[in-house]
Amino acid sequence: MTKTADDSRLDAKARPAFTRRGLGAGILAAALCLGPLAALAQTQIYDARTKKWVNYDKKKARQYFARNNQLPEAFRRQVVTFRTAEKPGTIIIDGNQHFLYLVQPGGQAIRYGIGVGREGFGWAGIVRVGRTAEWPTWTPPAEMVARDPNAAKWAAGMPGGPDNPLGARALYLYEGDQDTIYRIHGTVEPWTIGLDVSSGCIRMNNDDVIDLHSRIEIGAKVIVLMQGAALYKGV
Amino acid sequence: MDEGILRMKGLVLTLAALAALSGCQSSQPKPEDMARTSLQTAPADLQLLCAHAVAGAAQVDSAKVLPTSSRALDAASYSVDLDAAGRKFTCVVDTAGSVKSVTPAG
Q1: Phi, psi angles (nearest 5°) of residue A224
Q2: To the nearest 10°, the Cα dihedral for B91, B94, B100, B102?
Q3: Is the ipTM of this complex over 0.90?
Q4: Cα B48 to the center of its chain, rounded Å
Q5: Which residues on chain A are in Cβ contact (under 8 Å) with B35?
Q6: What total of structural domains would you count in chain A?
């Protein structure tokens, strides 16, 4: 079975609020990646019709996606100018602006829209891709199994597939040889891209995470920028 | 009377032309820029250009330099705060990607 953020071990240094051993992997899993929605910095999109910036929250995001069957253009995959000394293949995550950049040759990058950690769960640092998985298994934490009958049936692990919360691909982020328990993964809620939604994982829509997965190499450097981060890894 | 009407028409046409011109010059962002957050941080590439400059100035491995916050100083430049292996620095970079200064913070 492929392990995911939801059954990884707790890094005792990772977050003071999670240092009780008794909480274990179950609470960790609830806290990481699949947490409820809450706002950190308000996302705004430009309404070309009214020529005004408008707040873009979960409700509006869901309405927009239902109406257009796609994300606002800014959050769609695109090639952009990116001036950097980092080598091609490096992943740079701008958690505040909800973009993930994959550095390309010639001063360019592929930019993808992402969803990031909600308030108190943002993190920053310099890590690497330790391993990847296609259609990763999701194992709900014991705490979630206890309170949610829908999760209980997957107590032994939910096989990868279109309904799996981790989506189509997972990139497991490591600090040295240590699994950080954070991942870049797909989602079954594509409208959440552009929002502060998770508890630390980076979520992308499935087409984008498949594209990213096809382009990166194991060991790729990942720089996570997040103003106001609660946690720093690898620096 | 006719002259007055003509003047009025001229004024209306002038105002319409000005309105059209101002429409053409609106500050509507490009489609790819039509998203932002209330945290108006420096673009990621500019933050990392500062990190590269600080690594050189502080003689620190660039893998140990991380931008921690940033803000716009004006329409053409940003200030970026960085942690370089525990030492704090402030960097000013312009929107063209030119690092203007690197200074130890407080």
Answers
A1: -110, 115
A2: 10
A3: no
A4: 15
A5: 43-46, 56, 72, 74-75, 97-98, 113, 194
A6: 1
Q: pLDDT of A122-178, one tens digit each? A: 899 999 999 999 999 988 778 778 888 888 999 999 999 999 999 999 999 999 999
* pTM of this structure: 0.81
Q: Which CATH number is A164's domain given?
A: 2.40.440.10
Task: Quote the tokens at residue A5.
Answer: 């953020």
Residue B77 sits at φ, ψ, to 5 deg, of: -155, 160
Angular region, A167: left φ>0, alpha ψ -120 to 50, beta rest: left
CA A4 to chain CA centroid, nearest Å: 13
B72 in A contact zone (CB under 8 Å): no
Q: Would you give the DSSP letter of residue B58?
A: H
Pairing, β B35-37 against β A202-203: unpaired
Cβ atoms of A134 and A90 within 8 Å: the answer is: no
**Six-digit token pair at A54?**
């408008």
Q: Which domain range does residue B92 map to?
A: 44-104
CA distance B41 to chain A (A): 7
**pLDDT tens for each residue of B39-95:** 889 999 999 999 999 999 999 999 999 999 999 999 999 999 999 999 999 999 999
